[in-house]
């Protein structure tokens, strides 16, 4: 398990009293006959997404290690989601994620 996956699992446990979150699996590859494909979410889509229990507000959490770099597409996605009224941010710990969910 990578450090980012460990943090992601800690976040999922810590936020469960406050929201329902789902992990987004992304990737790319080739089919058996050689065709290229990518999964269905746009570049920059956050690692975790869901809904805050108290008000149904959308939640987007980009998980990073302490040294993890945020890609421009991720910054753009988070900015756009916040402009739309969602709770969205970069979280490097479970504490960061819980603090994000406490925003009004």
From TrEMBL:
<keyword id="KW-0540">Nuclease</keyword>
<feature type="domain" description="VRR-NUC">
    <location>
        <begin position="2"/>
        <end position="95"/>
    </location>
</feature>
<dbReference type="InterPro" id="IPR014883">
    <property type="entry name" value="VRR_NUC"/>
</dbReference>
<dbReference type="InterPro" id="IPR011856">
    <property type="entry name" value="tRNA_endonuc-like_dom_sf"/>
</dbReference>
<dbReference type="Pfam" id="PF08774">
    <property type="entry name" value="VRR_NUC"/>
</dbReference>
<dbReference type="GO" id="GO:0003676">
    <property type="term" value="F:nucleic acid binding"/>
</dbReference>
<keyword id="KW-0378">Hydrolase</keyword>
<dbReference type="GO" id="GO:0004518">
    <property type="term" value="F:nuclease activity"/>
</dbReference>
<protein>
    <submittedName>
        <fullName>VRR-NUC domain-containing protein</fullName>
    </submittedName>
</protein>
<dbReference type="GO" id="GO:0016788">
    <property type="term" value="F:hydrolase activity, acting on ester bonds"/>
</dbReference>
């Amino acid at each position: 398990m990578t450090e980012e996956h460990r943090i992601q699992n800690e976040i999922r446990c810590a936020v469960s009293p406050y929201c329902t979150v789902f992990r987004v699996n992304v990737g790319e590859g080739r089919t058996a006959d050689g065709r290229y494909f990518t999964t269905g979410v746009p570049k920059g889509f956050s690692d975790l997404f869901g809904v805050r229990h108290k008000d149904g507000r959308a939640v987007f959490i980009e998980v990073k290690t302490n040294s993890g770099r945020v890609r421009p597409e991720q910054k753009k996605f988070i900015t756009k989601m916040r402009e739309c009224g969602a709770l969205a941010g970069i979280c490097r710990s479970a504490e960061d994620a819980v603090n994000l969910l406490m925003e009004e």
